[in-house]
Automatic annotation (TrEMBL):
Residues 52-400 form the Amidohydrolase-related domain. The keyword Transcription does not apply. This is Amidohydrolase. It comes from Actinosynnema mirum (strain ATCC 29888 / DSM 43827 / JCM 3225 / NBRC 14064 / NCIMB 13271 / NRRL B-12336 / IMRU 3971 / 101). Keywords: Hydrolase. PANTHER family: ALPHA-D-RIBOSE 1-METHYLPHOSPHONATE 5-TRIPHOSPHATE DIPHOSPHATASE. CDD domains: Met_dep_hydrolase_A.
Amino acid sequence: MSLLLRDAVLLEPATGERVEADLRVAEGRITEVGQRLPAPDGTRVLDARGAVVIPGLIDAHVHVTASTADLGALPALSPSYVTAQSIRAMGEMLDRGFTTVRDASGADWGLAKAQLDGLVRGPRLHFCGKALSQTGGHGDVRTPGVAVHDSHQCCAGLGRVADGVDAVRTAARDELRKGAHHLKVMAGGGVSSPTDRVDSTQYSMDELRAVVEEAEAANRYVAAHAYTARAINRALEAGVRSVEHGNLLDASSVELFLAHNAFLVPTLVTYWALKEEGARFGLPEASVRKVDDVLTAGLAGLDLAARGGVRLVYGSDLLGGMQRHQSREFLLRREVQDALDVLRAATSSAAELLGEVGEIGTLAVGARADLVVLERDPVEDITALTGPSAIRWVVQDGEVRVG
């Protein structure tokens, strides 16, 4: 399949450079950029008429299988029902311009392969399988009255419980065996978990280091769920590559991010959505009461990290019906960041975190032909990324998927 975009404004996020040019695609790759490029026989020609072209967007914190905000209910749902819900969610993400996503627990090899094989319409999936949690941690969805943990790995839950260095190593190796692109560890308390506190730390340093060691042995990396500076700092000292959320970080956390060359993936929109709609979409009342603990700190934490030079990546972390707000994260970040930096978080910086530099998040010749064609320049008006009417076409692997 050959595709030619004529008379486009090509916006390269890494540099901020704009070029008025044609862009040609063949065999799923960007093959040429220039003026008045020829169109070989069989080429589909799209007249951009001055529209702005950016790389396909990347969301580095999604849960495509989380069809409800009541995460404790997920393991009891039929896996086939959850799959059907996931397919719908993935298709809607692609409609919003997200051509690659990193699933931060829940998705597996089957969903990822189904997308690659063309059985599922949606973004390319980087997955971790199930997140690792200590007993009573953020990935343990049992309420206080439930004594037995069902660790069956065919269930649709987002986490698995493993305690002690040996058990943690076994769980990490099992997720890697199942094809995980990265490992996820719950290093602190969370909003949607029923028996922990947001300000708790989770896992011993030996356990955290064991997960990192197993990931590094497999040439993979670890993402850590953490809110408070104490939990963040422990995870960074253990060697994780990315911290998810990080709302309550402090100056010492910023120093550690820089020292370890690690990434921060804020997820501001999920707290806004949980506050507004969480109860409607199944968030238990006890979890609703936790939202305020992290909601107000999110923007301040993002501002501190951005000013300190921390590498920031786009994430949404939305659950159930709230996933429709995925693009609102752009608006929230714009309150404290330049629009170009916000765009980089969802393109070039995200590609770096995922180990996909030169493959995605760029318009460079040789990269995957993942493109979003916009009616307006997102650097001048960030709302160009937040509504379906602003997107003219979405191209993934050289095929027009939207428009």
